[in-house]
Amino acid sequence: MTFEELNLAPEIIEAISYMGFEKASPIQEKAIPVAITGQDLIAVAQTGTGKTAAFTLPILHNILKNKIKGTSTLIITPTRELAMQIDRQIQGFSYFLGINSIAVYGGGDANEWEQQKKALRDGVEVIVATPGKLLSHLNMAYAKTDKIEHLILDEADRMLDMGFLDDIKKIINKLPKKRQTLMFSATMPPKIEALAKTILNDPAQISLAISKPSETVFQGVYLCYDNQKIPLINHLVSDENEYKSIIVFTSTKKKVNEIVRGLRSKKYRVEGISSDLEQSKREELMRDFRSNKIRLLVATDVISRGVDVPNIDLVFNFDAPGNPEEYVHRIGRTGRAGAEGVALSLINEQDMEKLADVEKLIEKKVYRAPMPEFLGEGPEWKDRAPRGKKPYKKNFKKR
Ligand code: AMP
Fold first, then answer.
1. SS3 of residue 216 by DSSP
2. Do strands 101-104 and 126-129 pair parallel, antiparallel, or not at all (unpaired)?
3. How many domains does the structure of the chain reveal?
């Protein structure tokens, strides 16, 4: 479906074509017609599906059409990376619309606080915020919420997992009762349903098929000993022309530096990113990664959701993610918007059970890749998953 068929204002259509989007994604096709009417909405959609545009476009359309002035829209999202990414997307869309937005998140310096304060005082149209920092502002007299007409909760399940429920309730208590609320969540556990009942009014419900990695991502898994992991990755990334942009995910901050040291190369830049770094440093690294100055980024799950880096062609799971959904988020960093990608997981024997959980969620067996001979044997596979079948994309350097 085209965006014209979704009846968006011509100015918005122009902005969309400027962003290079040609067709609406399934979540956009379903959510935009509902959100544009002002009805509440609860949508189950994962990151990578185009959900950000699914909630921002109808809201921008309504601000424009109804000539709404002042702070009318509040988007609450779990992490600063997501807040920045949503803000960037809104700025991209609204460049010619005269609609301003600001990302409000913690971790910045006094200067940033002042900037946020000024934007709130001046009545910036759209606020994109993490819950804690937003509350700190809302507790001050300058932040006015009486004109909020649209509230969007993004990644609601993650916000609850991160313990933001109380903050969210406090924020909602400060908003007008008469408003449109859109709630997006990657999963729909009972606690999300319960929250939805209390804050949404007769919502339309949209659900996309449950978390499944894009079909364009080739998924492989190596069963190995821990001391084989670094040499294995170094071997797999040795051809610089093959993969230009690579992320290695690990579950703990502690391991990031150790992995960076093991993967460091004279030929290309390798960096690590975790929530231990200053916000400004994280932004700088993400910029350098986005512009291909960094070839290989080692990261914790802090960037597995939402962070919008196009053209990542290879994602490693240095260890099994904490839960199967996280696996889908991590490997969703590659194969964005239909591009081809490769996701390789390195698991040890203890992680085999987690692999089974992942395969249950994605309803698919992940290709068991053979260890390159020079590394010696890995542990024995104990299951009867398909092996030896040639992967459609690459044979992962058996030699
Ligand atoms: P999201 O699920 O919002 O994180 O979006 C995933 C990626 O898809 C982002 O890079 C968006 O810029 C991109 N995107 C969103 N909608 C479309 C579309 N209709 N056509 C092409 N790319 C899109």
1. coil
2. parallel
3. 2
Query: Would the CB of 21 count as within 6 Å of ligand 1?
Result: yes
User: Does residue 228's CB lie within 6 angstroms of at least one atom of ligand 1?
Assistant: no
The Cα–Cα gap between 236 and 398 comes to 10
* Closest atom of ligand 1 to CA, residue 52: 3
Q: 271 and 146, same structural domain?
A: no
Tell me the pLDDT band of 392, cut-offs 50, 70 and 90: very low
Residue 191 and residue 294: Cα distance in Å, rounded? 40
What are the φ/ψ torsions at residue 94 (nearest 5 degrees)? -100, 15
Res 328: pLDDT? 85
Alpha-helical runs (H) found in 144-278: 156-161, 165-173, 190-199, 226-236, 253-263
- Give the separation between CA 211 and CA 205, rounded to whole angstroms: 17
CATH number of the domain that residue 119 is part of = 3.40.50.300
CA-CA distance, 93 to 87, in Å (whole number)?
A: 10
Q: What is the pTM of this model?
A: 0.64
Residue owning tokens 């889908």: 328
Compute the distance between CA of residue 79 and CA of residue 392 in angstroms, rounded to an integer. 36
* Residue predicted with more confidence, 389 or 206: 206
Residue 144 sits in which domain range?
Answer: 4-207
